[in-house]
Amino acid sequence: MRSLIIRSFHNDEIRFAFVHSGRLYTLMMKWYEDQSHWNLHSYDQELLNNPNKYRFVVQVLLADERVIDYLQKRKIDLAAVKCYECNNVILDS
To answer: Rounded to an integer, what distance in angstroms lies between the CA atom of residue 20 and that of residue 58?
Structure first.
């Protein structure tokens, strides 16, 4: 993965932008306090229309060392990250 950018907003939202296979992807992680989990999602129509590709892109993102380090520093467990739009995948730590 190249050109990874991670930005945090208001302690309840994290945005990721990165290039993979020559394409720019953007994803957001939003904290849902009532359900005690982070929801990882994108507004990218190509991903929304192809759940398998969506799941693959999410796996690429969460396998990146910089993302793993960032989440660990923020004390975010991968078990608390859900991606409902990519076939209700629950990501394992």
So the answer is: 11
Rounded-to-10 torsion of CA 7, 43, 58, 91:
90
pLDDT of 30 strictly over 90: yes
For the chain, what percent of residues have pLDDT higher than 70? 91
Instruction: Evaluate the CA torsion angle 39, 75, 57, 29 in order and state its sign.
Output: positive
On whether the CB atoms of residues 73 and 29 are closer than 8 A, the answer is no
